[in-house]
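User: My instructor asked us to take a sequence, write out its structure as tokens, and then describe one feature of it. I'm not sure where to start. Here is the sequence I was given:
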Amino acid sequence: MKAASLSISYCPLSGMAKYVLTHSLGYEVCPARSPETLKQFNQLISDENANRFGISIIDRYVEDDCTTAGKSEHSAYLLVEAPNQEKVLELFKPIGVKTRPVIAWKDVQKRMGL
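Assistant: Let's start with the prediction itself. The structure tokens for your sequence are:
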């Protein structure tokens, strides 16, 4: 995946940038449908696993209740801090994610002199 061309919010103290990750899937393959698969998914997105890649997971979100039977596609979102986009893609390769670099709105305002 090609890195975005926009200016990424990079913290010189930590050497990290922030990314929003999106993992979309159908109900039929949702890890919440199987205790074993859910355990594997939770291991993948655990702080301990992310730290092995130099990544910090700030928080994790899901759309509504992903366990609702009959719901077609839904997504999980993660906000992470990582040294680069390649590390993020390496960590989440088993499930496939879309990555977007993000910056805090306060930083945008600061750049604009507001």
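For the description part of your assignment, you could build on this observation: Strands lie at 10-11, 16-26, 56-62, 73-82, 98-102. Try explaining in your own words what that tells you about the chain.
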